[in-house]
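Supplementary Methods S3. Complex input for the phosphoenolpyruvate-bound model.
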Amino acid sequence: MQWTLVVPLKPLAQAKSRLADTADDGLRPGLALAFAQDTVAAALACPAVRDVAVVTDDARAGRELAVLGAAIIPDEPGGGLNAALAHGAGIIRSTRPGSPVAALNADLPALRPPELTRVLDAAAEFPRAFLPDAAAIGTTLLAAAPGRELLPVFGTDSRARHRASGAVELGLADVDSVRQDVDTGDDLRNALALGVGPHTAAAAARLLIPGQ
Ligand SMILES: Nc1nc2c(ncn2[C@@H]2O[C@H](COP(=O)(O)OP(=O)(O)OP(=O)(O)O)[C@@H](O)[C@H]2O)c(=O)[nH]1
Ligand SMILES: C=C(OP(=O)(O)O)C(=O)O
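Predicted complex, serialized as structure tokens:
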């Protein structure tokens, strides 16, 4: 089974505000783009992934991610993360009704294709399934089988909210690279320790990170 992934991405100037103490206003947009580039490149290198659609209104991000092979969907609802994901999933479903769809965060710079394959293969056993983030509070991936709506409830406490929505929590071991989202400086240090992709490695080299 091959998946279509929907990756949401805020306008870069507003993205990753919780990294303000680690990357200043001049560097943060480039860092957020680098996370998205490494996430999308790793996803497209995954044999379980047929294609990747990024929902974004950011022109620069749209250009750079299209170069990697992503389809770009404008964030027409402009109603926040879950509206953007439902919009993207709806467009994918209208063009390809038989395809399984998964939402994947754009901030997974350590993402490894074999680990993403394991997560998607596990998700394929259920109508809807999700993977909790490294902090075990949020969600990094939400999957829906063909014919099932995605029904995303990302945001505060999304692990509990996805569980309450009936999605099955995937309790896989050794898929750290799919769980390691980067919201804070500590998250970035953890991702660097796992090993990030080339865009994030280059962007992070411009930051002053203790221990790096
Ligand atoms: N298209 C789209 N993507 C969004 C929107 N809000 C958040 N995202 C994306 O959803 C994922 C999780 O977003 P958040 O944690 O809310 O925001 P963030 O920019 O990652 O970090 P903070 O600014 O620190 O909250 C990231 O990939 C964001 O770029 C939105 O309104 N539209
Ligand atoms: C929106 C989410 O991600 P983040 O951890 O980036 O806030 C979430 O976990 O639902």
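The CA atoms of residues 2 and 48 lie 5 Å apart. The beta strands are 3-9, 49-56, 71-73, 101-104, 128-132, 139-144, 168-169.
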